[in-house]
Design a protein that fits this description.
Strand content: under 5%
Structural class: mainly alpha
Helix content: 55-70%
Order of helices and strands: HHHHH
Shape: rod-shaped
Number of helices: 5
Largest sheet: none
Length: about 100
């Protein structure tokens, strides 16, 4: 959508990104494939396109994974609580859980 508002065509973008042809550009724009970070950043730089919408699925997956794994790590750390460094790690992970629950 952002590229279509510009005068550039898919072949132009493919050239700028050093791609052999523009078929991947078409697939990315139609949502048939997820662009890699390099392409996302290129679209951001070329068309001032926000990249956050493309990262939502990955963000949600990682938030769930972290929310699942952090309690397990906390449990392990609780058994080693004597060390000051362990206490700060526990406090940090607890703050991460709070942030994850606010997403």
């Amino acid at each position: 959508m952002y590229r279509k508002k510009s005068p550039l065509n898919q072949a132009d973008v493919a050239f700028l990104l050093q791609l052999p042809d523009y078929s991947n550009i078409s697939r990315w724009e139609q949502g048939q494939r997820t662009p890699n970070n390099e392409v996302l950043l290129a679209y951001y730089l070329l068309f001032a396109m926000p990249i956050e919408p493309f990262l939502v699925i990955q963000k949600d997956y990682l938030a769930r994974l972290l929310a699942e794994r952090i309690p397990k790590l906390l449990s392990d750390l609780e058994s080693m609580r004597q060390s000051q460094k362990v206490g700060s790690r526990i406090a940090y992970l607890e703050s991460v859980i709070i942030r994850l629950n606010q997403l």
